[in-house]
User: Fold this.
Amino acid sequence: MKTSPLTLEEFAGSVLAVPPLARHADLSINAAANQQLIRHIEAGGITTLLYGGNANMYHLPLHEYAPLLEMLAAAAGAQTRVIPAIGPDFGKMIEQAQILKGKGYRTAMVLPMQGFTTPEGVADGIERFVQVAGMPVTLYIKSEQYIDLERLQRLAESQHILCVKYAVVRADTGQDPYLKEMIERISSARIVSGMGERPVLSHIGDWGLTSFTTGSGCLAPRACMDLLRALKAGDRARAQGLYDAFMPLETLRDNVSLIRVLHDAVSWSGLADMGAQLPLLSATPAAMRVPVEAAARSLLAFEATR
Assistant:
């Protein structure tokens, strides 16, 4: 695992893969299967791994956190940056801060807490985490109400927030006053599009966000990196062709479950066995196996042509 200081330029150089987390039938972490998936992602040129929602970190037992950090550090290559998630509640965040300290990680992503928060409280929690862990956070924003932009700017300027994973859903991604003001306050260099491939033609091609997160790119990392490069080069025709290849699986994820479908798509593609899903989530409905497996295998086949 890469442990050198993390700069904003590094975010711009790679898509951020957001892999599922492989487990055995007894729910223990499957180190071998996780490493198998990591090697596939690395072979496609992605150099940043973000273990968050797709890894179901929301329900991770606290006693698994230190072993997980050790496993990921050992499994990732020397040039691969790993970003673990924390939270979403403050109690979990502050205990994870103690565990993270001194482990070689350079940022951790705050999972979004739905409800029971205030913007002032979120800012306070971030400051307390940074004080204990000794590292800035990557903030996952899914709602305008989570934190106001004045506080966000202050936290970025004080180096409490390194980067934002932006995932506020819009009917028209080209019309987003909140994102516009966010860019004006903290710059696009600090903002990663955080909703997979679907919004990237706009988020990267028009808004100029620095990169994007990907779940489906765990299956097709080389194609995903090609998409990022095409968008940054302004080659919209090439980007569109790459984008279209991701949409069948992304649409199934949107319609059924982003986390559950990706977890099982990796298994059903034959790439690596992700095993059981950690409660309080469950497996993809059995009736969806045929379309999910077909979309996953089609994306893998497309990856093989890159």
User: Anything to note?
Assistant: The domain at 8-304 is CATH 3.20.20.70 (TIM Barrel). The CA atoms of residues 187 and 265 lie 35 Å apart. The longest strand covers residues 81-86.
